[in-house]
Amino acid sequence: MKRLEVRNMTKTYDEGSSTITALNNVSMEVDAGEIVAIIGPSGSGKSTLLSAVGALLQPSSGSVIVNGKKIETLKEKELAKFRLNEIGFILQTSNLIPYLNVLDQLLLVKKMAGKVSSADQQFAKQLLADLGLEKKLKKFPNELSGGERQRVAIARAFMNDSSVILADEPTASLDSKRAFEVVQLISNEVKKRKKAAIMVTHDERMLTYCDRVYRMEDGVLTLQS
Amino acid sequence: MFLALKEIKHAKLRYSMITMIIVLIAWLTFILSGLGNGLSTLSAASIKNLDAHYLVYEEGSGSKFSKSLISASLKEKIDAQSEVEDSALFGSAMAAVSKKGIDEKTDIALLGIEPGSFIEPKVIEGKKLDKNIQNGVLANKTLQDKGYAIGDEIKVDSSTIVLKIVGFVENETYNHLPVLFSTVEQWRAYQFAAPGANNGIEDVVNAIAIQAPNLDAENFSEKIGGIETATKSQAINGMPGYMEENGTIVMMLVFLVAISAFVIAVFFYVLTIQKTQQFGVMKAIGAKNSFITKAIVSQVFVISLVGILVGVVLTYLTALVFPEDMPFNLDPTLVVLYGFALLLISVLSSFVCVRQVSKVDPLTALGRVE
Ligand SMILES: Nc1ncnc2c1ncn2[C@@H]1O[C@H](COP(=O)(O)OP(=O)(O)O)[C@@H](O)[C@H]1O
Ligand SMILES: [Mg+2]
Question: Which stretches in chain B have pLDDT values below 70?
Answer without folding.
Answer: 365-370
